[in-house]
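Supplementary notes (optional reading)

For those who missed the lab, this is the record we used. Protein: CigA protein. Length: 639 residues.
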Amino acid sequence: MWRRILCLVLAFASIFLLSQTLDLSQVYGKSKSKLILWKSGRHQTHADWPPKHPKIFEPLYDDSQDDARNTFNKSGPSAEKTLDEEDDEYGPRHNLRLEKLQDMVRQTKGYYTRDYSKALGWNNMRYILEASLLHARLLNRTLIIPSYVYARACDFDKEVCSAYADTVNRNEVFNSDEWKSQPLGWRVPITKMMDVPRLRRSQPVIILSDYLRLHGLPPSLETATGYWDRDKYHSQPSVFADEMTKGNAIGGRPSLFVLKNGWYDPTGTVRVDRLPQDLRDRGGWDPRSTDPDNGRVGEWVDSAKKSPLCASLEAALSENESTLTWDRAKEILLEHIGKRDEYEHDEPVELPEDERIKSAKFSRSRSRWPKTDQGLERELIRNGWEVVYTYEGALGMEYSKTVATPARQVAPRSRFRGLVEEYGHATEDVFLLEGETHLGRKPGGLRFTTSAGRDEFTSMILDGFHLPHEVLQLAQQIAGRMRDIVQGREWMGAHMRRGDFVNVGWVMEKSIEDHFKRIQSRLEDGRQILGQIAVEAPSEYNIPPLSDDPFYLATDERAPEGLDYIAQNRGIVIHDLLTINDYRTFGWSLVFTDVLSLVEQAVLAQSGYFYAHAMSSVPGAVLNIRAARKADPRTFLID
Ligand SMILES: *[C@@H]1O[C@H](CO)[C@@H](O)[C@H](O)[C@H]1NC(C)=O
Ligand SMILES: *[C@@H]1O[C@H](CO)[C@@H](O)[C@H](O)[C@H]1NC(C)=O
Ligand SMILES: CC(=O)N[C@H]1CO[C@H](CO)[C@@H](O)[C@@H]1O
């Protein structure tokens, strides 16, 4: 056991040393040719793995190759090193110099940050970061993101991972016993999980260690939990503060505005991005009325009598909900058309002087009743409701968090609270949204009052929120190998989460056989769809799969019986496709299952057809990438 671990550690160390100086292809060249012998046995690709001959070269662990070590475990000059080393407009493989950071921050009104819940897995973090990016944009602030997150699983023996990244006991950090069986977490720089320089295309973003650097504070101050330290992070003025500022009341230290968690979207309200002028006019929004106890700014003073339609819509809202789906609202509207006579007896609601509304005035002729969606929308507006723009959650639940499925909802105008209207006025240096706001929320953590606002967020995420370059590159290669396995036809992919989901009863099928059969039947439907698409638009690139083609399965199943079952049933898992060369090229972070699963997401995004389960946040990330590459929307199913 220990010899094997030592070998692995040494192997990785020498690989990194060597990759600087030597071409390893001669040493490991063999592995490549063994790669895709799918027919000749499943575990072929493991033949060279773990490597059995790493001792050819000096077995040194050189931690200067390893930015995680440098950043987290050393004091002195190297502690100054930022994690943000990717090439970008600020220069190749360079720290962002303090001046550059300062320039970036100056373009905005200050910082936006969160109490980041680092106890969550990456896909939930992804969603929180996406929402934060939007809030920072709406409030014209520079987003601060954590410098590192925790990898939760090691794809090798734990000791291998611990050689590459510092460990924490998550039960201790989060004061919890959630991870009794596997308390270890590894600190992985956030740049290994997402393309931070690219994110800056959407909005100025800095990592927390840069914020600390900008304030002359050591990176070691970063809290392990992700909690925003209201004292320490605010204990020093910016290194660019002038003497005058330092002499003022708070000594030039950054000031803080806290948006209390309970103010964000209390029951009975609809948090929206902003309130456009026409919407404010319609509802008689009065910006002067404020309620400091719940952070409310502005009030809806429209006191018009509730129409029967309005009452029916309100009655359709379920408890604690403030929105209806468009389809449900439409049903109710159309029902009212049926009861029009009754409806007409009520006093018409007094309308504001708005052209759009005037044109929607109640028509007395049945034939002129608004039948189009636009007409229905006008009718809603007339009755104190508005259309809001958001995204559809798979199966009506909010787990997948994708921006690939735009949707409309309707909500009573008087419940709207605009983020910009309420908090755009804050002048403090740091704007903090307290605590956690991710469960049950829509992507972005709010709804949009215009489709343009929603679509802008969509493109911020699709264009700006990308996986790291090395992840995309490896996924591209692996997708190519899948294509080779199916001899150039399209191939299908599915996500099968087992592990903790089996334990909490979140999988649809408890036994792997049933789970697998479900996946197979969905993929068979998918194959039919690919067949149809190929008929509609024949091309040499979309040759549909054959019924007995192997398919790609992203799964956390690691039990040998489970893996054998998958193999016998044409499932191909990531370890069938990875080579030692991949590990060499990619870098150390691939030893973490968390990073490997990013590669898997990107592979799934390349599949001809994709199927996954609705109660997971993994498919959301996959759908985002698919949407970014404009995959046909018929080619996925989440249920
Ligand atoms: C954002 O804030 C900066 C600094 O106050 C200002 O110069 C800039 O015009 C603002 N941008 C927008 C879009 O309001
Ligand atoms: C609605 O909110 C109240 C108070 O927060 C809570 O007790 C209740 O369980 C909620 N109802 C539903 C259906 O979620
Ligand atoms: C090599 C090294 O410096 N290791 C240290 C990394 O950080 C942990 C916790 O701060 C120390 O316990 C190690 O000694």
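If you only remember one thing from this example: The radius of gyration is 27 Å.
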